[in-house]
Specification:
- The complex is a heterodimer of chains A (148) and B (166).
- In chain A, 24% of the residues lie in helices and 36% in strands.
- Chain A has 148 residues and is α+β, with helices and mostly antiparallel strands.
- Chain A has a six-stranded antiparallel sheet.
- The relative contact order of chain A is 0.19.
- With 166 residues, chain B is an alpha+beta fold.
- In chain B, the strands form two sheets. Chain B has a six-stranded antiparallel sheet with strand order 1-2-6-7-8-5. In chain B, strands 3-4 form a two-stranded antiparallel ribbon.
- In chain B, α1 packs antiparallel against α3.
- In chain B, β6 and β7 form a beta hairpin.
- Chain B starts with 8 loop residues before the first helix and ends with a strand.
- The chains are: A alpha+beta (148), B alpha+beta (166).
- Chains A and B meet through α2, α3 and β3 of A and α2, β3, α3 and β5 of B.
């Protein structure tokens, strides 16, 4: 996205980006905030996405999908980004469970952006951001031309 | 002298299939996503039937990378527990009854995992197979390949560490 883009337009474009991803819709993901090279996303609590019906804790797969989506969105919103992006690798450390009933948040930032690759760090949390449920680092590709 | 009663093969195989189906469907999330397993003897292979809602990039279209990551984690964790379930259902008795009642051993806790993405997941079925590189007393290190049309052309490979339940 261009650096001179208005904040409300950036929000609208990023929200549009999330809304067309079927899997993001399927698990109830939404955009909370966005800036140049960073996004904040959330997933509403849904018992159908639990790891265990007894504990009700949200499955790690939901956390992985949220972090991967946030990473890609952070790359796309970077002022020097290309047309699209794909995940090259993603590493996730799981630190604590995501409790029953808790809305899951993620914040991702694209802290290094080159011509062909972008580096992202992301954090998922349910309460305070400094008590994360998971942290992630990823390398994403930058597509600067449309290819078949 | 105890008389060892030979159990009909189909009874044993049905109990093994039921145990695997129960284990695979224990997490509500797995049911929602459609994660399933095939079995040949004691070898299990994860199966993810294609569904439109699994798409992450609608332009290409490609499976969501998070779905691939989730599939890898579930196949790795299931592989670790399956060994214990397999032994529990080997003969009729209290251990097999517990499994039949849905009381599975606790899944290992995922400490971390890394996914390397090799190519975009096409809008078709995916398969995954785990290999336990090391299983210690407390920790296990597992590797998972995910493929679609050909096992020789994996779409992703994951490496994870798990903490085994008590």
């Amino acid at each position: 996205m261009k650096p001179d883009i208005k904040p409300e337009d950036r929000l609208r474009i990023a929200r549009q980006f999330i809304s067309v991803l079927p899997q993001a819709q399927d698990i109830g993901m939404s955009l909370e905030d966005v800036g140049p090279g960073w996004v904040a996303l959330a997933v509403e609590y849904d018992p159908r996405l639990a790891a265990d019906a007894a504990t009700g804790e949200t499955h790690n797969g939901v956390i992985a999908t949220l972090l991967d989506t946030a990473g890609g969105a952070a790359v796309i919103t970077h002022p020097d980004s290309g047309l699209s992006t794909a995940t090259l690798d993603l590493r996730i450390d799981y630190l604590r469970p995501a409790a029953r009933g808790a809305r899951l948040h993620a914040r991702a930032e694209c802290h290094i952006l080159g011509r062909s690759t972008a580096h992202v760090r992301a954090v998922a949390f349910t309460g305070a951001i400094d008590q994360p449920v998971a942290i992630a680092n990823g390398v994403f590709t930058i597509e600067r031309e449309w290819r078949e | 002298m105890s008389v060892h009663k030979i159990e009909p093969s189909e009874v044993l195989e049905a109990r093994r299939d039921a145990a695997l189906a129960g284990l695979a469907g224990a997490a509500p999330y797995s049911g929602h996503m459609g994660f399933a397993f095939f079995r040949q003897g004691d070898e299990i292979t994860g199966h993810l039937p294609y569904a439109r809602r699994l798409i992450g990039n609608p332009v290409i279209p490609a499976l969501h990378g998070g779905v691939t990551a989730a599939f890898i984690e579930i196949v790795a964790a299931t592989e670790l527990v399956w060994r214990d379930v397999w032994e529990a259902v080997a003969v009729p008795g209290p251990a097999a009854d517990a499994i039949a009642a849905g009381r599975f051993p606790a899944l290992p806790r995922t400490l971390d995992f890394t996914v390397h993405y090799f190519r975009a997941g096409q809008p078709r079925d995916s398969h995954a197979r785990a290999r336990v590189n090391r299983r210690g007393r407390r920790f296990a290190s597992v590797e998972v390949d995910v493929w679609q049309d050909s096992r020789d052309r994996p779409i992703a490979r994951g490496f994870g560490h798990f903490m085994l339940a008590g």
